[in-house]
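User:
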Amino acid sequence: MRGSLRSPDRALQPQHRCTLARWAAAIVLGLAGLAALSGASHPQSIEPPAGTDDNIDRSKSVVRPAPVTTPPVTQRVALYEEDPTDSWGKRFAGTVVWRTETVSSGLGQQPDIAVIADVEIPERRMSMTWTLRRNLDPILPASHTVEFWFKLPVDFPDGGIANLPGVLMKQAEQSRGTRLAGLAVKVTTGFFLVGLSNVESERQRNLQLLKERSWFDVPLVYTNQRRAIIAVEKGAPGERAFNEAFAAWGE
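Assistant: Predicted structure:
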């Protein structure tokens, strides 16, 4: 990975870029609407019926132990950044937690299983949520979509993320990645969407890479034009999440 902070191969022709951007913007609006509805309908308080609480014998109440929760198993993440003072660049360690979740696109589609990765890079105070889902919208020219939500501190030294060219798959952290065929768009600040190609030959190749490769590369361009790559390990939890989702999708 050292010295390999280069842009991925060129994207597909952008004839569907506006459609993809509108579709992604609808997701943002739908999620905002759901959040507003949830906040508006949240009950403020529930008062018990009058006269029913004063004479209850609470000494016989059953105290149940709190459930034991197992901490999630984390996998490795590495953020590589260009550094004008060091030709080798800089590396920051991070972690990722893989899971599956039934989600809704907010576009009138039925809920469907999705693969989700929660990435944390503490030294840079950067977090990223990566979501892979099957595309069920016939209007969108994509087989699957990959969403990227970033959270950065307000004083992030490189300003922010200006571009996310695509997604690459590779066998190991230091390996060179192979680009997934698709089209990437920036929807809003901190939110990017990649639509994977629905051309059958490219779709099959994408599925093979997603299933067989053990690491992801997420190339970034900061607002100051410095480049970076987030390398994310699948590990056993990631493999289980992908296997569960692909089995549910019949792929």
